[in-house]
Amino acid sequence: MRPRWCIPVATLALAGGSMLAFASMATASSAATRSGHVSMATRSGHVRAQLGGRAHMIRPFISLRRGRNSVTSSNWSGYAAHNGPYKSISASWVEPRGHCSGTTRHKYSSFWVGLDGYNSGTVEQTGSEVDCKSGKPKYYSWFEMFPKFPVIFSNTVRPGDHFHGSVTFNGGGRFTLKLSDRTRGWTHTEHKSLSRARRSSAEVIVEAPSSSRGGVLPLADFGTVHISSAMVNGSKISRHNPAKIIMETGGTRKDTVSRLRNGENFSATWRHS
């Protein structure tokens, strides 16, 4: 069961000043508890989680401004190939440790691989998360076929865990989303369908998740996340002329993204909520 929210219009500014606007609506019926907790589960009921506060994993809420060699986004950073269609994206990363000091008690950050979202209205994605809830770090993992709401895996996640994620298009609107925690020895493989997915981009992203009520939420201090083996269609992401995405709001950069090393590895370092 999922609560009912409207996703705000996201505007994308492309080279030459042209504008592409799209809006996505995520609708289903449910009710939140008085404390604002939201319960989410798969149809089979085998995956269930309860998240405090607003539903914060609503995507995309992205506004990009193109520069000479990079773009800025209010809630994304990382790298995105964007001249699809693409068939697959994969990468590995190490779950960073969350630092939850400061006066803002609730902050959020996620790390994922996906197809679509950069210049389209769907995202097929899977990844992990570290949030600050009442000043304490919370770790978990998930998959999402946006505009549907995310599904949270029940497995334990800890800082230092080595993840590998992939999203693969199988034809006929069918996708396989696979996430493995190689440190703890578990893997989730999800087979999902989305006939209108364009597969126009393939990305490896650090994100400040968003709420339809409050927009982009404060970015949790994740220190530095190291991402490796970023592959698009089975080859290094650098071979697909990817855009470097820098997370920025009001001229303030929220993190620093390194250059691609060996065409497939990079890191992101937190700077500001």
List keywords for this structure.
disordered N terminus, Jelly Rolls, 273 residues, 10-stranded mixed beta sheet, single chain, 8-stranded antiparallel beta sheet, mainly beta, globular, 0% helix
Describe this structure in words.
With 273 residues, the protein is mainly β. The chain has a single domain, classed as Jelly Rolls (Sandwich), CATH 2.60.120. It is built from no helices and 26 strands. The strands form 6 sheets. Strands 7, 8, 9, 11, 12, 13, 14, 18, 23 and 24 form a 10-stranded mixed β-sheet that branches. A hairpin with a 2-residue loop joins strand 21 (224-232) and strand 22. The two termini are 31 Å apart.
**Contiguous helical run count:** 0
Q: Strand percentage, roughly? A: over 45%
Say what the CATH topology is: Jelly Rolls
Q: What is the rounded distance between the termini?
A: 31 Å
Helix content: under 10%
Give me the oligomer status.
single chain
Question: What's this, in brief?
Answer:
With 273 residues, the protein is mainly β. It is 0% helix and 50% strand.
